[in-house]
C-alpha cells in the first residue's frame, strides 16, 4: 500500500493524541451523528432491507469463490467493448502502468475522480515523481490535497475538518494550484462548494486524461459503474480523451441484474440518500461520446492474499459505503488518521492488516482497534462479520500460523509483546482444568480483596493502563451457589 | 510469467477450498427482495416520482403536449439564457416558442464552447419513481453525456406514465448496458462538508423536470 503511511505508530499511540484533540473530536462527533440518524431513516424506507443485504452478501461471496472465471470474463467483455485491460500484481506495477499510459498521451497533468484504489497504491506520488500533476476533483479530496493532509474517512476524506478550517485552507492554498478562492469567502458550505466549482472548472475543461476507480465492474457486459454526488466524476469520465480506471479485482459483480441490489443498498448506506445525485455507467468506448481510449487496470495488491484466508476473505465483499465508520465508537473518538491507512474504521482494521500483512507495528495493532461491540456488522450492507475477522486476526497476531503473502504460503511467527498475554492464557487454561486450584485461588482472592492493587504490576501494567481491574467479590460465585443452592433458599 | 497469469494463479490457489460442485450462480443467490416497494396505481407512481424529484431539489412541472412549447419558453425566459443547447434528435416543436438562440451540439464542439451555453433541454430514457431518478442513455433526444453536464441549467422532459418505472430493478430491466448511462437524482450536490448535503457543485445547479402527459393516466 501507499508509502504515505510507512512508519506510522501503532494504533494506541496515534489514537492517544487524537482523543486529546477536542476540535477533532467535536468535528467527528457532529458529522458521524448527523449521518447515523439519516442513514437509519433511509434504510427504514425499504421494508426488504434484510433481503437486499443477504442478496448482496451472496452475490459478492459467489463472485469471490469463482473470481478466476469472472476476471477472465471481465477481460473478454471489456476488450470486446473497445477497452484495453492491464493486470497489476502490486502497487508498484499499477503505478508503472498508469504512469506509462499517461506519458504515452504526451500530457503532464490529469484530473482524478475520488478513488480508494489509487490512494491505496499512492498513485499521485508516483505520478508526481514522473513529473505528472494529478488534480483531485472530489471536494473532500481537494480539501485534503490543498491542506497537504491525509484522508481520514472513506466517503468524506476531510471529515476531520470543519467549515472554518476548510475556508482557511481554500483562502491560503487555492492560488498555488490554480484559480484562487473568491475574495471575502465565508464558511457557509454553499459558498465553499461554489469556490471549488470555480477553481476546478478550468481544470475540467482543459483535461485530456482522466483517472478513476470504479464501484462495480459487470462481468457479463464489461460495464463500469461510478457512483458520486458532485458531478466531478461525470466531468472526469466524459470530457477527457483518455480514461484510465484502476479497479481492485474484488469489485466485480457477475451480471447486469446484480446492480439492482447494490444500487439500492449503497446510496442508502453511505450518504443516506434514496439515490446519489449521479451514477455513470460505461461499457468500453462509445463513438462520439466520451473518451476515445479506455484503459482498465485490474489491481491485486494483497487482495489474493486476503482471498486465501477462509475467514478473512469476507472483507473483500466491502462496497466502501463507510456506514461502519459512522457507527463505530472507536472511530468517533480516535478519528481516521490513527488507523494508519487509507481504509480507516472497522473495515480498515480488518482490511489493512490483510492487504499489507501484520508485519508493521500499526498493522499488528489494528485488529485491537475495536471494542468488538458489533455495531459495524449490524449496519454493513453486505453483512461482513467484522468482529469475527478481528478476533481471527488477533489470533494470527498473537499465535502466528499460516498465511499468504505475495501469493506464497508462509508461517507467521507469534508477534513480540504478547508474551505476557500468552503466559496469562496458559495459566488460565491450567487453572480452569484444575478445579481444586481454581477454588483455592478464588477464595484467597476474595479474602484479600481489599489489599489488591487497582493496577497490575510488571508485565500486566500495560493492560491496566487503559482499563480498570474488575472488583473482586467478597465470596466466589461457586461458594455462593453451594451455600444458597443456586439462590433457591432465598438467602443472599 | 505475466502479471495476468500470476494473479489468476494466486486466485486459483487461494480458492483451493472451494468444491468443484459449488452452487452455480443461479442457485447461489437468493433474490427474496421486492421488485418494487408498495402497490400503487399508475397515477400514484407518477405522483411519487414528482414528490421524490422535488425532495432532492429538482423543480418539477407538469404539462400536456399542447402546452409544452410555451412552458419551455417560460422556463427559459425566467432564467434568461442567451443560448440553449439542443441534442440532435430533440422534437423541434418542444423549442418552437423558445426565444434564446438554439445551439446544436456538434462532434467538434469543445468543452470550452459548451461552457459558454447556459441551458440545455433534453428528453430521457426513463425515470424511477421510488428514488426520484431520471436516466439518460445518449439517445438522439438526449445527446452526448457532456451536453447535460457542462451547462448550469438542465430541463429534462419525461413522458408520463410511459417512461416511468417504480423501482431500480425495473429500471435496469429496461436499460441497455451497451449505451453510456447517466443516472441523475436532483441537481449536483455534496455531503463533504460536515456530512451535510449542499446542492450545487460541478454538474448543473438547477435541474427542472417536466412531466409530459403522453396519455391520460388511469
UniProtKB/TrEMBL annotation, chain A:
Q: Does the keyword Metal-binding apply?
A: yes
Location of region: Disordered: 460-492
User: Which keywords label this protein?
Assistant: 4Fe-4S, Electron transport, Iron, Iron-sulfur, Metal-binding, Repeat, Transport
List the Pfam families: Fer4_8, LUD_dom, LutB_C
Q: Where does the chain cross the membrane?
A: none
Gene Ontology biological process terms in this record? lactate metabolic process
Q: Spans of biased composition, class Basic and acidic residues?
A: 476-492
Question: Which Gene Ontology molecular-function terms are recorded?
Answer: 4 iron, 4 sulfur cluster binding; metal ion binding
- Asked if the Swiss-Prot or TrEMBL record annotates the protein with the keyword Hydrolase, the reply is no
What protein name applies here?
A: Lactate utilization protein
InterPro entries (alphabetical): 4Fe4S_Fe-S-bd (IPR017896), 4Fe4S_Fe_S_CS (IPR017900), FTHF_cligase-like_sf (IPR024185), Helical_ferredxn (IPR009051), LUD_dom (IPR003741), LutB/LldF (IPR004452), LutB_C (IPR024569), NagB/RpiA_transferase-like (IPR037171)
**Limits of the 4Fe-4S ferredoxin-type domain:** 315-384
Q: What are the LUD domain coordinates in residue numbering? A: 73-285
Species this chain originates from: Streptomyces griseicoloratus
The segment(s) forming the Lactate utilization protein B C-terminal domain are 393-483
From TrEMBL, chain B:
Tell me where in this chain the LUD domain is found: 95-212
Q: What is this protein called?
A: Lactate utilization protein C
Q: Which organism is it from?
A: Streptomyces griseicoloratus
Q: Which branch of life, at top level?
A: Bacteria
Gene3D superfamilies recorded: NagB/RpiA/CoA transferase-like
The record's annotation in InterPro entries points to: FTHF_cligase-like_sf, LUD_dom, NagB/RpiA_transferase-like
A Pfam family that this protein carries is LUD_dom
Amino acid at each position: 500500500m501507499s508509502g504515505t503511511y510507512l512508519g506510522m505508530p501503532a494504533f494506541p499511540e496515534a489514537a492517544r493524541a487524537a482523543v486529546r484533540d477536542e476540535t477533532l473530536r467535536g468535528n467527528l462527533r457532529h458529522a458521524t451523528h448527523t449521518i447515523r440518524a439519516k442513514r437509519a431513516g433511509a434504510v427504514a424506507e425499504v421494508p426488504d432491507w434484510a433481503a437486499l443485504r443477504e442478496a448482496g452478501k451472496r452475490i459478492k461471496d459467489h463472485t469471490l469463490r469463482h473470481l478466476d472465471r469472472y476476471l477472465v470474463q471481465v477481460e473478454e467483455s471489456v476488450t470486446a467493448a473497445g477497452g484495453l485491460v492491464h493486470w497489476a500484481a502490486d502497487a508498484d506495477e499499477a503505478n508503472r502502468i498508469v504512469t506509462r499510459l499517461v506519458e504515452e498521451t504526451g500530457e503532464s497533468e490529469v484530473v482524478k475522480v475520488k478513488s480508494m484504489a489509487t490512494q491505496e497504491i499512492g498513485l499521485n506520488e508516483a505520478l508526481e515523481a514522473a513529473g505528472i500533476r494529478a488534480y483531485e476533483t472530489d471536494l473532500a479530496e481537494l480539501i485534503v490535497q490543498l491542506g497537504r493532509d491525509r484522508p481520514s474517512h472513506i466517503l468524506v476524506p476531510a471529515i476531520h475538518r470543519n467549515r472554518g478550517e476548510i475556508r482557511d485552507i481554500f483562502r491560503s492554498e487555492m492560488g498555488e494550484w490554480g484559480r484562487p478562492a473568491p475574495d471575502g469567502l465565508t464558511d457557509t458550505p454553499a459558498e465553499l462548494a461554489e469556490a471549488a466549482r470555480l477553481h476546478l472548472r478550468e481544470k475540467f475543461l482543459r483535461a485530456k486524461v482522466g483517472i478513476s476507480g470504479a464501484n462495480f465492474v459487470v462481468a457479463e457486459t464489461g460495464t463500469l459503474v461510478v457512483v458520486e454526488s458532485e458531478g466531478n466524476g461525470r466531468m472526469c469520465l466524459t470530457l477527457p480523451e483518455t480514461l484510465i480506471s484502476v479497479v481492485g479485482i474484488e469489485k466485480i459483480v457477475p451480471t447486469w441484474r446484480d446492480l439492482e441490489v447494490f444500487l439500492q443498498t449503497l446510496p442508502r448506506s453511505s450518504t443516506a440518500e434514496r439515490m446519489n445525485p449521479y451514477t455513470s455507467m460505461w461499457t468500453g468506448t462509445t463513438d462520439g461520446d466520451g473518451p476515445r481510449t479506455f484503459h482498465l487496470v485490474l489491481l491485486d495488491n494483497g487482495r489474493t492474499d486476503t482471498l486465501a484466508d477462509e475467514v478473512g476473505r469476507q472483507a473483500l465483499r466491502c462496497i466502501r459505503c463507510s456506514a461502519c465508520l459512522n457507527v463505530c465508537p472507536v472511530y468517533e473518538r480516535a478519528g481516521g488518521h490513527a488507523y494508519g491507512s487509507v481504509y480507516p474504521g472497522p473495515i480498515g482494521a480488518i482490511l489493512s492488516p490483510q492487504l499489507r500483512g501484520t508485519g508493521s507495528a500499526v498493522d499488528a495493532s489494528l485488529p485491537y482497534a475495536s471494542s468488538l461491540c458489533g455495531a459495524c456488522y449490524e449496519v454493513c450492507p453486505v453483512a461482513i462479520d467484522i468482529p469475527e475477522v478481528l478476533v481471527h486476526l488477533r489470533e494470527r497476531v498473537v499465535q502466528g500460523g499460516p498465511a499468504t503473502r505475495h501469493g506464497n504460503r508462509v508461517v507467521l511467527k507469534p508477534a513480540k509483546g504478547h508474551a505476557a498475554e500468552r503466559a496469562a492464557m496458559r495459566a488460565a487454561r491450567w487453572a480452569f482444568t484444575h478445579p481444586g486450584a481454581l477454588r483455592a485461588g478464588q477464595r484467597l482472592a476474595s479474602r484479600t480483596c481489599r489489599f489488591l492493587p487497582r493496577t497490575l504490576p510488571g508485565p500486566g501494567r500495560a493492560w491496566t493502563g487503559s482499563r480498570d481491574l474488575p472488583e473482586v467479590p467478597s465470596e466466589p460465585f461457586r461458594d455462593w451457589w453451594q451455600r444458597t443452592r443456586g439462590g433457591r433458599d432465598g438467602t443472599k | 510469467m505475466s502479471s495476468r497469469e500470476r494473479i489468476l494463479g494466486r486466485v486459483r490457489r487461494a480458492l483451493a477450498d472451494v468444491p468443484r460442485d459449488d452452487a452455480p450462480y443461479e442457485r447461489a443467490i437468493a433474490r427474496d427482495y421486492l421488485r418494487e416497494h408498495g402497490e400503487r396505481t399508475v397515477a400514484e407512481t407518477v405522483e411519487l416520482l414528482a414528490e421524490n424529484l422535488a425532495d432532492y431539489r429538482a423543480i418539477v412541472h407538469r404539462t400536456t403536449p399542447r402546452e409544452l412549447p410555451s412552458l419551455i419558453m417560460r422556463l427559459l425566459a425566467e432564467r434568461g439564457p442567451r443560448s440553449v443547447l439542443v441534442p440532435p434528435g430533440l422534437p423541434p416543436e418542444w423549442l418552437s416558442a423558445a426565444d434564446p438562440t438554439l445551439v446544436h451540439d456538434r462532434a467538434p464542439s469543445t468543452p470550452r464552447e459548451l461552457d459558454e451555453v447556459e441551458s440545455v433541454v433534453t428528453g430521457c430514457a426513463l425515470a424511477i419513481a421510488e428514488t426520484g431518478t431520471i436516466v439518460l442513455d445518449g439517445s438522439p433526444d438526449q445527446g452526448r453525456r457532456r451536453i447535460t453536464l457542462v451547462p448550469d441549467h438542465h430541463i429534462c422532459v419525461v413522458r408520463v406514465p410511459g417512461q416511468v418505472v417504480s423501482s431500480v430493478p425495473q429500471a435496469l430491466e429496461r436499460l441497455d448496458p451497451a449505451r453510456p448511462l447517466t443516472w441523475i437524482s436532483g441537481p449536483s450536490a455534496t455531503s463533504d462538508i460536515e456530512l451535510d448535503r449542499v446542492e450545487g457543485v460541478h454538474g448543473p445547479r438547477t435541474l427542472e423536470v417536466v412531466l409530459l402527459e403522453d396519455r391520460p393516466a388511469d
